[in-house]
Predict the 3D structure of the following.
Amino acid sequence: METSRSEQPGDQGFYEINGHKLYWELYGADDAPVLLLLHHGFGSIRSWRRQISAFTNAGWRVLVYDRWGYGKSEIRPCFEQSFLLHDAEEAHALLNHLGIHRLSLLGHSDGGSIALLMASASPDQIERMVVVAAHIYFEPKMLSGLEMISETSKQPPFSKALDREHGDRARHLVDSWVQHWMESEPQELDIRERLPKISCPTLVIQGEFDEHATPQHAVDISEGVQNGQLWLIPDVHHMPPHEIPEEFNEGVLRFLAAQGPSLTPALD
């Protein structure tokens, strides 16, 4: 059964940064440890509808937001070179704006790469981290995955899902995102040198049949960070949070609980 996002956010709003606005929502008790969810390359807050209630019910305060160009945040003209690093910097700025100084991260696909960049830039701020189908370098398999996305996004059900997430900006979002990855040089996509800076306990999740990366990719992430664990899921593709939500939620929460709750107030 799918976990629904039935509860309303305790707080929500827009944060203006670098000439555009980001939309954010906070769920859960004010004094609970914070877990930031970072959505995938075509996602939004809505992408986490199967996770939010499960995590708040388990005692977390969940922060979700639409990255620049997504969901309710303002439109993004294009995906600039090193946009993942730019988005990681904006995530840190949003946390500072909300007074959040210690937290855990859960990122999916692009969001997983952003989580890795955040943890490498501010290792003392991140208590624990889960990355799902993250990417840290170019693989030839990615090209066929991009071509598949470009085609399937033009037809239902994918096109309808994109319209629900992003409205009339959906086609522009897909085209500009695919163009960025197609035109980027392989060396521009490589962030392996940042991994040794990541000291927090890190769970690396990937579906065995991920359309965009080989299992070795996940192995390299788990071995590249200082304290990594690997969960390679049989018979699952690129979207574990959607494909197997109950099993995914249980596995993530089990990992987070094993590290112990934070005793440091998450919010000022």
User: Anything to note?
Assistant: Residues 11-258 form a domain with the Rossmann fold fold (CATH 3.40.50.1820). The two ends are 36 Å apart (CA to CA).
